[in-house]
Amino acid sequence: MNITINGEKEHLTGQTIVISDLLQIKNVESPEMVSVQLNGKIVNQERFQSTSVTENDELEFLYFMGGGENK
Amino acid sequence: MIDFTEDQLERYSRHILLQDVGVEGQEKLLNAKVLLVGAGGLGAPVSLYLAAAGVGTIGVADNDVVDLSNLQRQVVHFHKDIGTAKVDSARDKMLAINPDITVKTHKTFLCADNIREIIREYDFVVEGTDNFPAKFLINDACVMENIPFSHGGILRFDGQTMTVVPGKSSCYRCTFRNPPPPDVVPTCSQAGVLGAIAGMLGTIQAAETLKFITATGDLLTDTLLTFDAKSMNFRKIPLKQQKDCPICGESPRITKLEDAVQAVCGI
Predict the structure, then answer these.
(1) Model confidence band, residue B187 (pLDDT cutoffs 50, 70, 90)
(2) Contact A69 B242 (CB under 8 A)
(3) CA distance between the termini of chain B
């Protein structure tokens, strides 16, 4: 199947994959540090294992990012 | 309309020349009140540019003192300031750039008990904190008080920012939901950050602030701007207000400021 992750086209084998497996394939080290937007809708982290991605889906992996303070 | 002095006309001439700003815009800046939360890597460039721009009242909230390891990127603080309260150090530099403005210092941790009262006196908040409880607290308080703000985050070679106008755009919680568990969070002090990244991201936040005040251009609302300075790729990711957002959605679960903040207050 063909999907788009962070604006880049990706080809994956298979017809479907759950988000948690996709994060693993894409070497996302800490799934807790990423928010996933699937076709414009934010997927709650509790649903990463039950939400499937299929042909032509558009995903954004949005990373939590801290900031300026040295704390 | 205020009467600009000759000095003001000269100081702000490059703003006044801009069709989108002009004297009206500069007057808005002089009348504006902006709060910076965090006088660190992001707050540093923001404070310098907002002071230079003539933002009339700038509040700065931070409970920290300047440390040697800050100086690699927190350009508002100088070597001589080590050991000084960051709010005092930042205030001195802002007033040195522009004695025309008023700086209010809040040497305190913002927490559930005090944040709403403090932010209420401002038109816009610039969030430049490193800990996620604080980021969520600022989002929630700004949504409750209906105060627009700029979120900023940096790590290693990356930066991200979004502008939130409560009631009109998606909020930080729409996209990021809940603070990540503390044990998986890399901070600048653990993971490092290229100093100039703070300047890149902070100046974007400063520009958003000035755009908001002068009602110029399109804000980064419903948008996450991210960049990777290694490749210098910038992306604007469209975001949407989420109906199930726990604070600004259809049936908000959060109706008063949350417990996660207590960890911050307890430090």
Answers:
(1) low
(2) no
(3) 46
